[in-house]
Amino acid sequence: MRLLLQFLWLWASLMNIASATIAEPEPEEWQDITKVIVANITSLEDRSTRQAEEYSRLQDRLARSASWNVNHPRHRLLTALHGFSRYKERNLAEVKRWRNLYKHVPKAQKTVVERIVGYTRKLNTVEHLFEENDKIASEIVRYGLDYYNISQAELDEFVAEAEKEKKVADRTSVVQAMKHFVRDWSEEGFIERRDAFPCILGYLARMDRSEERPLRVLVPGAGAGRLGYEIDALGAFEVTLNEWSAYMNLVHRYATQGPAPNSLAYHPYIDWWSHHATTADMLRAVTFPDWIPSTSRVVMVEGDFTTVFSGEDSDSGTYDVIVTLFFIDTARNIMSYLETIHRLLKPGGMWMNLGPLLYGTGPWLQLSLDEIVLLSEAVGFEFEVDEADRGCGNPTPGVGGLDGKVRSLYVPYGQNARGLSRNAYDAQFWRARRV
Ligand SMILES: *[C@@H]1O[C@H](CO)[C@@H](O)[C@H](O)[C@H]1NC(C)=O
Ligand SMILES: *[C@@H]1O[C@H](CO)[C@@H](O)[C@H](O)[C@H]1NC(C)=O
């Protein structure tokens, strides 16, 4: 039965891809068939007890309550679904804007531009590719509604209400979240993972553990989830992920639902025309997922890191390891992050961090590295100095001598592998034990 369903599922995915690439409308009944298969696979794919419990907590958090506002988890989820459901509309509006700008070019020049590079054709192609991408965005919505048990009617009503209040679907958050198909779930994104991941995975792989006594690992700020599944694949770890962004969670849920490897295609670079070496590169598709992880063990806890693990079901003092990757600089209040990491670890538990100090808009504290080290020590961490970390960067130089507590390495990040620009960061790596 299960094999049959998996076969059906595979076939369904392939058909979906087929229909996505040849630009034909999907028959209604076909969507229904896929939906049933998805529902069955999810329930049959032996969701573990831990997953079932977390799903029930998730549903409790998502339930509408007296305090209904933009910060309510269901409101944030519906806002993200609104964003994905308007992918085409929002992006085609942008193409239209580009077309209008092009109209300013004098006719004689336009003739040359058209004859030599066919700029109008490029605009047309991009428009078409946004329509292709929209099929993925629609699938994300469909899968999301199914997964979170939200009806299309509820979403429609939410969207109508929001648009009546002139709230525009968030194009940037959607586009940024979908770029994680590349970073986390494609072969092309390996360039972004290959330097950072081995530092963390290499250390974890050497930790003493067994299937009978797995180590509990928490990954806050898990994004689209890749690192967590790679940790799980090392064996004998019980992995919990945490992510606040509903956009990211939708992308993560969709990317790991189990389509065939590299069966989905997405054009990640058409929304931003800067730094492209060639137009062909800009237009190219990236296939995903390059890897189908086992999803039956990893648990994703959605919500704010500093609050979702507190309260009744508090996980205080229960984790052996907490891994933060490109995370700590996202804090509004980094002190709360430090305290939460400390509280959740077992005494003697390990905090492993890798990432830059690139503060966004409006953090309450913008600390330098030495200040983070001092404050972490004050909160109750002891940094490990280990020459065997040689594979992970070099000791961070700096006034006051960080005494080998922190290492720095270069991590290509957010990089279009064939583009002209290189957004890369010097990331810091450290391990510190809860005293
Ligand atoms: C598959 O899903 C359908 C609809 O949700 C349900 O009626 C059916 O019982 C499920 N089959 C199995 C084997 O779970
Ligand atoms: C889905 O939501 C409906 C109400 O909208 C509820 O009756 C049903 O029990 C929910 N299903 C699950 C699996 O939570």
From TrEMBL:
Signal sequence annotation: 1-19
Coiled-coil annotated spans: none
Pfam families xref list: CARME (PF07942)
InterPro entries: CARME (IPR012901), SAM-dependent_MTases_sf (IPR029063)
Keywords, alphabetical: Signal
Top-level taxon of origin: Eukaryota
Name this polypeptide is given: N2227-like protein-domain-containing protein
